[in-house]
Amino acid sequence: MISIEQMGIVLEALPDPVFILSRSGKYVAVFGGRDARYYHDGTGLVGQNIADIVKKDKADWFLQQIELALDSHRLLIREYELSGADVRGLQWTGPRKPIWFEGRIQALDFQVDGEDVVLWVASNISERHEMEVQLRELSDTDQLTGLFNRRRLELDLTLLYEAFARHSVPTSILMFDLDNLKKVNDTLGHYAGDEIIVAVSKVCRSELRKTDIACRFGGDEFVIGLPNIEMGQAVQFAHRLHECFNRELSRLCIDEGVSATVSIGVATMLPEDRSYEDTLKRADNAMYEAKRRGKNRVVAADTTAADTKSHARRVSEGANKAQQWEPSQSRS
Ligand SMILES: Nc1nc2c(ncn2[C@@H]2O[C@H](COP(=O)(O)OP(=O)(O)OP(=O)(O)O)[C@@H](O)[C@H]2O)c(=O)[nH]1
């Protein structure tokens, strides 16, 4: 049999800190978690209330989890970030960086001072979390350019479409494709082609806002999502981008007779659109219209309601009617 004293030693030896917290957020007891490489010493928290030592939004979140665990009587598992600096009164001996925790929260079948209590085991999962973030970034990123890949674009455009449909946030899409990349590859080699793809993505990165989404759609095709941008602004932006592309690509000193340019199609989300794919399709059509008209240009898709309604028919007929932007059309 383990004695009460031995039980106390076992609790203190627990590698992860274990808190007993009351429904109102009082730290009733703290055990274990003594390794300062992973945890701050929490013994000073006993007797304090979470609402008095942690910022309000975080304290509210903790209280909510305690409530949930008590009401459901089921084990709750939650991940959260907390820094030593977030908690008033902690001794500054633990990790300097914010810690990612996995909290396991379980209701206990007894009360302390007339209050329900939970057991809260807090495990430091910072390394695992960092790895998960890196993995997520890798699975979202195109290897050659560092831009987002198609998978991530689809997720982000879905969110932009929801913001457009629910809150009427104007949103535009640019689709562009390199001109003559095959000839560059065939004449100057695949690395020269890669260089062009990378140069174009660098221009995207330097010209876009943080909230814009740039993606390599595949091969030599790219897509840019522009939240809060209406058609006129999108067309203006596309022209600016086009100039930057030309400037950058001409600096690459491609041999005479072999040069890469860019054809851009522009479309904006319309109330008739059922999903972002409708908008993307119009941008794609406009891009092919740019190719058809001789490449190296910007073409804006039709945006009038009548044109939009007949869009599907035009596409199925292969007519691809699109407008080329003239400065007078701009609505900056
Ligand atoms: N160097 C390089 N080439 C690629 C890459 N991905 C796709 N390509 C090439 O890009 C070309 C894309 O095909 P197309 O768009 O029909 O070729 P294009 O010469 O640009 O034709 P236009 O768009 O009509 O001007 C193909 O030759 C692909 O092999 C890549 O990652 N690196």
What does this structure look like?
The structure is a single chain. With 332 residues, the protein is of the alpha+beta class. The chain has two domains: 4-131, PAS domain (Beta-Lactamase, 2-Layer Sandwich); 141-329, Alpha-Beta Plaits. 42% of the residues lie in helices and 23% in strands. The protein has eleven helices and eleven strands. The chain has a six-stranded mixed sheet, sandwiched between helices. The protein has a five-stranded antiparallel sheet with strand order 2-1-5-4-3. The longest helix is centred in the last third of the chain and has 21 residues, at 231-251. The radius of gyration is 29 Å and the shape is elongated. Residues 144, 177-183, 185, 190, 193-194, 197, 219-220, 291, 295 line the site of guanosine-5'-triphosphate. Its cofactor is Mg(2+). It holds the Pfam family GGDEF. This is diguanylate cyclase. It catalyses: 2 GTP = 3',3'-c-di-GMP + 2 diphosphate.
Secondary structure: elements and pairs:
Elements: H1 4-13, E1 18-22, E2 27-31, H2 50-53, H3 56-72, E3 76-82, E4 99-112, E5 115-124, H4 126-140, H5 150-167, E6 171-179, H6 181-188, H7 190-207, E7 213-218, E8 221-227, H8 231-251, E9 261-268, H9 276-292, E10 298-301, H10 305-309, H11 311-317, E11 322-324
Parallel strand pairs: 9-10
Antiparallel strand pairs: 1-2, 1-5, 3-4, 4-5, 6-8, 6-9, 7-8, 10-11
Helix pairs in contact: 6-7, 7-8
The protein binds guanosine-5'-triphosphate.
In short:
By secondary structure, the chain is of the alpha+beta class.
